[in-house]
Amino acid sequence: MVIWNFLFSCVPFGSTTHTEATMKLHPLGLFLLSCTWLLLCAAAPVTVRAGIRREAEALVNWKASLVSADDSLGSWSLANSTSLCKWTHITCNSAGHMTELLLMQTSLNGTLDRFDFSAFPHLKSLTLFSNGLYGTIPAGIGNLTSLAQLYIFNNTSLRGAIPHSIGQLKHLSELYLSLLGLDSNLPEEIGNLTTLEELHLHSVTLTGSIPRTIGKLVKLRELSMQKNNLTGSIPLEIGNITQLNNLQLWYNYLQGQLPGTISNLASLQELVLTGNQLGGHIISEFGNSSLLDTVDIERNNFSGLFPSSICIGGRLRIVSARSNGFTGIHHHTFRNCTSVRYVDFTANNIVADIKDCVGEHPWQLSMMSLGQNHLYGRLLTDGGKVFICNSTYLTFLDLSNNLLDGGLPKCLWDMPSLGYMDLSSNSFSGVVPSWKTCEDNLICLRLANNHLKGTFPLGLRKCKNLISLDLGGNNFSGRIPSWISKSLPNLIVLRLSSNMFGGIIPHQILKFQQLHVLDLSKNNLSGPIPDNFTNFTGMVHNAEDIVSDNNLRFEIISGQTQIVWKGADHGFPILMVGIVGIDLSGNSLSQEIPKGLTTLLGLRYLNLSGNHLLGCIPEDIGNLVLLESLDLSLNRLSGEIPPSFAGLKSITALNLSSNNLSGLIPMSDQLRTLPDPSIYSNNPGLCGFPLEGCVDSPTSTQSGMSQAEDNREALWLYCFVAAGFIFGFWLYCGMFWFYSETWRCAFYQYVDNMQGKVTKKMYSCMSYFQAKVHG
Ligand SMILES: *[C@@H]1O[C@H](CO)[C@@H](O)[C@H](O)[C@H]1NC(C)=O
Ligand SMILES: *[C@@H]1O[C@H](CO)[C@@H](O)[C@H](O)[C@H]1NC(C)=O
Ligand SMILES: *[C@@H]1O[C@H](CO)[C@@H](O)[C@H](O)[C@H]1NC(C)=O
Ligand SMILES: *[C@@H]1O[C@H](CO)[C@@H](O)[C@H](O)[C@H]1NC(C)=O
Ligand SMILES: *[C@@H]1O[C@H](CO)[C@@H](O)[C@H](O)[C@H]1NC(C)=O
Ligand SMILES: *[C@@H]1O[C@H](CO)[C@@H](O)[C@H](O)[C@H]1NC(C)=O
Ligand SMILES: *[C@@H]1O[C@H](CO)[C@@H](O)[C@H](O)[C@H]1NC(C)=O
Ligand SMILES: *[C@@H]1O[C@H](CO)[C@@H](O)[C@H](O)[C@H]1NC(C)=O
Ligand SMILES: *[C@@H]1O[C@H](CO)[C@@H](O)[C@H](O)[C@H]1NC(C)=O
Ligand SMILES: *[C@@H]1O[C@H](CO)[C@@H](O)[C@H](O)[C@H]1NC(C)=O
Ligand SMILES: *[C@@H]1O[C@H](CO)[C@@H](O)[C@H](O)[C@H]1NC(C)=O
């Protein structure tokens, strides 16, 4: 069998040509030829053996050039060269030639410079992934004339260019050059690889534009060139790759329009162009491929109407067109789209009635995101029909930041799969309907910034898996229910700000064990801040620790919440950033700041501004070393700022203005970075950096000055005042006796000036004195 193979493989020309030639020859010629043939075949094993030896030598030489490799290359040795096929990582054909080299994750460190590619004319498959190759890809790689599969990926230290000789690999069907550290154009010669079926060139980094010769790869099925620095436009010739079913060009710098020839790609299943600078209109025929499954064109500049034929193939599952400039969706586009699962048009300029964006048939839809557009209309149609509730598989619904109005339909709460619902920043009105069940799936509910009214929605009592609840910016009133922490034990974010909630804060609010964000600001809450923080454990640790422990679902992590800190409004993907904070500002809360607050070591912001809080700042405030933003302004806090205050080493936004604080402001390197005196203003007795008039005064340097010293100072002050008075009196009277009119006037003026100066000095002295006495 082996011999037969040798015989076969030694025939230098195609065997059919040879047979034809044989037929026409004279018998003698035939005899001579037969002899030659026999001789050649006898020599064949020798040639083969020489070939194999060259392969073995090439491998051993290359191995010797490596800086290091793991033990698995141990069998590569010339002493073993007769059994090349038994070497590790190698596959042979029956003639004993290497046809496959598979070296992956061998902690191999070295270059390909000493790899003699021309020694392997039989190599069909070369795999060198997840190694430590550095240097460049040598031009000699073009000598692997039988190569069908080339996998060199995840060698991030490989530099330089893709060699032009790559075009010589005439039999190549799969080329994977991904996750490398290159810096080059894709050479035009790529178009010579006309047998190529898969081309993967992601994260390499390619620069320049996509060569037009790419259109010659008519057998190509997969093309991925994402995460490169490609510029220029997508060439028209792309439309010639009619077998293409997967096109990935995301995260590049591609510009211009999507070529119209794209609609020739009748086999296209997946098109991903996210994160480029493509723009203009997309031709309306686009998407008529009967196999089209995924269209992801997020974060480009596409405009105009979204192509209406996108659903014609009947297989479309995913459409993501977030962050573009589309102005409309044709009302037929999704009408018959029964296959679609995920639709995201967030942040476009779509002006449309909501019911035209959504099909009428029961959908398989599991995610739908239409936020940040100009959608209008109502969820509850005039006939009382609610189209959205037909979507029994819907898990994600984002209609935020639109112009929707009317009431909220009851059925929304009974959708069996819904996990994330964001209806915030619309004009929904009325009361939140109560609901029978709250499905276990609902974990994030945002109804903020609408015109909803009524009491705290009672139906929420059943939503025991809720993690994030935002009812801010509505007209809710009544009390915050005491059942809240017991019924919603998993809450991480609770935002009720800017409503009309009244009464006291129920002490049960401190029974939440996971809460990271508590925002009750701008309501009519009164009474004390509850003070039993023993079970309030969500804010005790650095939030990053907590988040990594939680196996939270994607939509929650990507969901945003609105918080105010460092004086500005922010939308935060809360759990990613690990924001932890309390905002009770803008209420009528009274009594002291509870000392237990200083045990919440994970706090990154605390805002108690605009209440009626009394007493001192808690002595241990400095324990809050992660605190970045602290606002206690507009209260009635008094006493000195505790020395531990200097321990707030993360503080970057501070406001203590408009209280009755007094004494010296503690100082630290971090506090010194906050030089704006207004953050301490309107506290009559406060002094020290950055306030003026105190830092240089020798009498104001120590807050613990003794009573005796104080008294002596007071005595001196009185003496000065008395002496001044006597002196002035005598001068005033004396001049009637001794001097003429003109002299008298000049003298009056002089004394007037002096008096002004003395009064000013005395006033500042007195106010300091007063402050001391009160403090
Ligand atoms: C030859 O290869 C075998 C495994 O195929 C290996 O065990 C042996 O150590 C090798 N011999 C030498 C001299 O490297
Ligand atoms: C490979 O070897 C070079 C030269 O010794 C060394 O600088 C480099 O750090 C090594 N790379 C790896 C991944 O070990
Ligand atoms: C191998 O490739 C290089 C570069 O393409 C070329 O110069 C050289 O002649 C080739 N060697 C053989 C033996 O084919
Ligand atoms: C690719 O683009 C990024 C961002 O513009 C840049 O930092 C990087 O240096 C570029 N890489 C190459 C190889 O051009
Ligand atoms: C290979 O590609 C180059 C550049 O596109 C072209 O000039 C050349 O003719 C091609 N060679 C073959 C053999 O097709
Ligand atoms: C490839 O596409 C271009 C532009 O779309 C076209 O002019 C050309 O004829 C096509 N080539 C082939 C071989 O189909
Ligand atoms: C899609 O539209 C293009 C351009 O109108 C057309 O050439 C092509 O045949 C159509 N393909 C299918 C599958 O309908
Ligand atoms: C939707 O489907 C109906 C019935 O199958 C069909 O009559 C209608 O033309 C389709 N509409 C679109 C826009 O494809
Ligand atoms: C809340 O209700 C009051 C009166 O009932 C109304 O004036 C105000 O506009 C409402 N606020 C919002 C945000 O709807
Ligand atoms: C504290 O809250 C008030 C009112 O709610 C707001 O104006 C202020 O900017 C907040 N302070 C900080 C530091 O965020
Ligand atoms: C501090 O708070 C007061 C009262 O809340 C506010 O008017 C002022 O703008 C704030 N100052 C800074 C610097 O935030």
TrEMBL record:
Location(s) in or outside the cell: Cell membrane
Membrane topology classification: Single-pass type I membrane protein
Any one GO CC term of the record: plasma membrane
Keyword Glycoprotein included in the entry's annotation: yes
Protein keywords: Cell membrane, Glycoprotein, Leucine-rich repeat, Membrane, Receptor, Repeat, Signal, Transmembrane, Transmembrane helix
GO-annotated biological processes: anatomical structure morphogenesis; plant organ development
Chain segments annotated as transmembrane: 715-739
Domain (Leucine-rich repeat-containing N-terminal plant-type): residue spans on this chain: 55-93
Family from the record: Belongs to the RLP family.
Name of the protein described by the UniProt record: Leucine-rich repeat-containing N-terminal plant-type domain-containing protein
Species the sequence originates in: Triticum aestivum (Wheat)
Source taxonomy: Eukaryota, Viridiplantae, Streptophyta, Embryophyta, Tracheophyta
